[in-house]
Each structure stands twice: as C-alpha cells, then as structure tokens.
C-alpha cells in the first residue's frame, strides 16, 4: 500500500475559513493527508486547524494575545511568518510534509509564499491567489522559490461553483505533484555541477556544459540575472551540487551598487561554506546595469553597450572595479574548498570585444591586479588569451573545471 502524502495547507481561517475547509475536504477525497495551519492574526480564539494561530505565534517567539492586540502590523506579520516557517521546517525534517498549498489574497499570499520559500527546492508548492496578476506581486510571491502560482481570477470569498472549480483543480495539481512517479531533484547518483550563464557568454557556457557532461557530470544552469543565481546559492547550501562553474558572477558587484542584477549579500559564498570546488570567471563583471530611474548624470557619459531596446550595460570605472575585486577576494578567501579563477585577457563577454566602445582589456587589469593582490596564496588565478566567447578559452576553462572536480571527487 502506498504511504499517504502529507500536505500542509496554509491559510487565514478568519477570512478564508469555508474556502480552506473545502480545500481540505478535496485533498482528503484525493487520498492525501492534509495538515491545516491557520496563520490568522485576528478573529476568534478557537480554530479548527491542526496548527492553530496560538501555536504559530509561540513558534515565532510571541503569543497570540500580542498578535491580536498589537497595532504594529509589520512586526506581527514577521512573527507569524517566522513561526509558520519554523513549524513547516520541523514537519519537513520529520518527513511529515510532502507538499504545501495555500489560498489567499495579497496579505495571505505574501505570508504563505514567504513560508514556502524556506522549504527546499523540489518540495511541491502551490499558491492559489486572487492577486497573482497584480503588477509586481507575482514576482514578489515567487522570488527564488519553485512555487506554482495559481491565479484564481475570482475573489476567494464564498464557495461558488466557479471558486470550487479553482480549488478542485489546484488540489488535483498538488495530488499529481506528490505522485510517486515524480523523481527526486537531488542527483544522488550523479555528480551535479551548478553553472551560471548569461546571453553574452552563452557560447562559452554551451561548450563548458557539453564538456562537463561528456566527462560524466550533470550540469544545471542558472541565468545570472539576479534571481536565479540567488536561488542557486540557496540550492548549493541545501547540498544539491558537488561543484560550481561561476562564469557570470556580476551579481556580486551589482549588490554593492544596488543595480538590476543584484544577487544578494550571499552571492558567491555558499560553495565556499560547503567546501565544494569552484571555477570562477568574469562575464559581465566589468559592467553595471542600473535602472534608468537610478541613473546618475555621469552615467550618460560613460561607455555603454545596448543588449537590446530594454537593457543597457554601462562599463564600470576603475575605482568601481577595485571595489568589486575586494568583494570577490573577501568572499573567496573564506572558502573551505578549492577555488580557481580563470580570466580571459581579451574581453569578458560578447559585449566586450574589439570594435565595441566598452572593450578595454587594459582597464580590466585594474580588477585583476587588485584581486590578485588580495587573494590567499592557495587560490590560483590564471589569465588565458582570447575572449570569453572564443572556443579555445571555453575549452581551457572546461578542462580546468574537470581537473578540479575530478581531484575533489578522489579525495
């Protein structure tokens, strides 16, 4: 007999009570075992949930009386999210959580998806939201999480036939997602490598990907545009990978300056903490991508490259290159595992080639010299002839990566 799957339901029963209880009954009818968590911050004291608001508040370091009487909405919301996240994590650690589903409007969706993102990649997550289509909210709900955002279209208020249809379909989606036919995302029997990439170093990434696969590695790519590389850092910390090829770590500098490819404060740190080997290169590290609303007057005078009609890359100044190099050194010097840095001498991307105004290999050496002077001795920094998109450079980098990963696997 198959083991029943435990599905955590997250909802505010003070505002979505009947709808949530209907969702629970549908999941039960599908043979699933729902665990209902009530994250209400107002309403009656008694709750029919398996995890009550009082338990959520206690897990968040507070009590339900404080939650219900406080006027500091932001604070009590944070407490509730923290408590719900702690309980969800404990359920997962005890193998009592196979998937999580939530229903809500804007506040409920924001809170529930915050909880969902604390769970590992691969745990099925479905958010049924009446505000999924509001500008800006869908990206806020999903962020770095592997969350299925299910737009209810109608308000989640009253069990009409239309809303029941929405809930039925969402429940069936969850039932399918926790099926035993779905394989685990963890490559337990393969050597998994994380690879960052961007369009301007796509040819290099393609070669590296192919050569690593030919050497017996499984390669998982991440677009290094600020969100996916942040997600990669989380997945590295969760033990998904045995090595990293970081072709495009520009999110480190973007975080320093608060620009569009900002990948957060932990960018390029997780592999070092886990002690897994890293190959680092420099695609787009010498460019910045400020939002047009954040342009300083002098940015208009700088050398720039238009990727398309929506995206413009602006070349970093020498003092900015030094700041980024210092951030690289600070992060990489903490690494517990082997690190090798490989930098092309004639341009760091297809946006950085002879004939393009931003091409300046002499100025790129400002970054290289600053970084080299700050790295601990055991980190090797190599300079290779050619542009990052040259096949010869890609082959050299792939060869170095395979050697590094094979050596680490033998230890």
Compile the SSE list and pairings.
Elements: E1 6-11, H1 13-29, E2 33-38, H2 53-59, H3 64-69, H4 73-93, E3 99-104, H5 106-116, E4 125-129, H6 137-142, E5 148-151, H7 161-177, E6 191-197, H8 202-214, E7 217-223, H9 228-237, E8 243-246, H10 251-257, H11 270-274, E9 278-280, E10 287-288, E11 304-306, E12 312-315, H12 318-332, E13 339-344, H13 361-374, E14 380-384, H14 391-410
Parallel strand pairs: 1-2, 1-3, 3-4, 4-5, 6-7, 6-8, 8-9, 9-13, 13-14
Antiparallel strand pairs: 10-12, 11-12
Helix pairs in contact: 1-7, 2-4, 4-5, 8-14, 12-13
Mean pLDDT: 93
**How would you classify the quaternary structure?**
single chain
- Report, as a whole number of angstroms, the end-to-end distance: 42 Å
Uncertain regions spanning at least 5 consecutive residues: none
Q: What structural category characterises the helix and strand content? A: alpha/beta
Count of helix runs: 14
CATH topology of the largest domain: Rossmann fold
Question: Can you offer a commentary on this structure?
Answer:
By secondary structure, this protein is α/β, with parallel strands linked by helices. The protein folds into 2 domains: 6-177, Rossmann fold (3-Layer(aba) Sandwich), CATH 3.40.50; 191-410, Uncharacterised protein family UPF0261, NC domain (Rossmann fold, 3-Layer(aba) Sandwich). It is built from 14 helices and 14 strands. Strands 7-6-8-9-13-14 form a 6-stranded parallel sheet. The protein has a 5-stranded parallel sheet with strand order 2-1-3-4-5, sandwiched between helices. The chain has a 3-stranded antiparallel sheet with strand order 10-12-11. α1 crosses α7 (161-177). The protein is elongated and about 70 Å long. The model has no long low-confidence stretch (mean pLDDT 93).
